[in-house]
Amino acid sequence: MTLEPGRAAPLRAVPSAAEPAPDHAGRVDALFRLAEAVTPPAGIRVTPGPTPQRLAPFACTLLADAMDSDGESLGSGRLVLLHDPNGHPGWGGTWRVVVYTRADVDEHMASDPLLPEVAWSWFGEAWHAWSVSPAETSATVTCNQSRPFGDVGDRVPTADVEVRCSWTPPVDGRGLIDVEANVRAWLQVMAVSCGRD
């Protein structure tokens, strides 16, 4: 089955133990459309991405690129919304938000031993700003440095920070989430990490 990016079609790879309410798929699809319609901060472009095929019965992916005023890349990101109406033991709920951000930084910042803690704090600030109350949070921060030598020694050294994070958002009485708040929290992290805030 071929899925259009961002659409809430059930995936055959994950069977459901019980059928959701007749209008549930439509409500989930409406949330995914809302996620795609969120206006990003200045300098960040968001587009629908390929939908994961085996992670959950419902899924939506957004891709983000941060650029400076000259159109040069400052970083990139990805957000995946996963939903299983029957719940998932690894999530502790029926929804999961999975995000990735990568931002270019200078060498001095990349070598700062406090950078991982600072990068992790970006999420706490974004969750607070958008009233997201995450549960079952999990994250890793990776700092990369690349220094050229030999025949390519004249190239400029590069460095970046990558953050992978996932959380289970709270649901309302209909089993739905505040998708806009979760997307905006991710975009705030993108903006801060790439200097576009």
Walk me through the structure.
With 197 residues, the chain is of the alpha+beta class. The protein has one domain (26-193). Helix content is 24%, strand content 34%. It has helices at 24-37, 107-110, 115-129, 179-193; strands at 44-48, 58-67, 73-88, 93-104, 135-146, 158-168. The chain is elongated and about 65 Å long.
Coarse morphology: elongated
| Helical residue percent band | 10-25%
Number of DSSP helical runs? 4
Classify the secondary structure makeup into a structural class: alpha+beta
E-strand count: 6
| Major β-sheet annotation | 6 strands, antiparallel
Q: H/E series, N to C?
A: HEEEEHHEEH
Number of domains: 1
What is the topology, as strand order, of the major beta sheet?
1-2-3-4-6-5
The residue ranges in which pLDDT falls below 50 over 5 or more consecutive positions are 1-19
Q: Between the first and last Cα atoms, what is the distance in angstroms?
A: 40 Å
Indicate the mean pLDDT: 84
Question: Roughly what fraction of the amino acids lie in strands?
Answer: 25-35%
What Rg, in angstroms, do the CA atoms define? 18 Å
From the structure above, extract its key features.
single chain, about 200 residues, alpha+beta, six-stranded antiparallel sheet, about 25% helix
Topology, element by element:
Layout: H1 24-37, E1 44-48, E2 58-67, E3 73-88, E4 93-104, H2 107-110, H3 115-129, E5 135-146, E6 158-168, H4 179-193
Antiparallel strand pairs: 1-2, 2-3, 3-4, 4-6, 5-6
Helix pairs in contact: 3-4
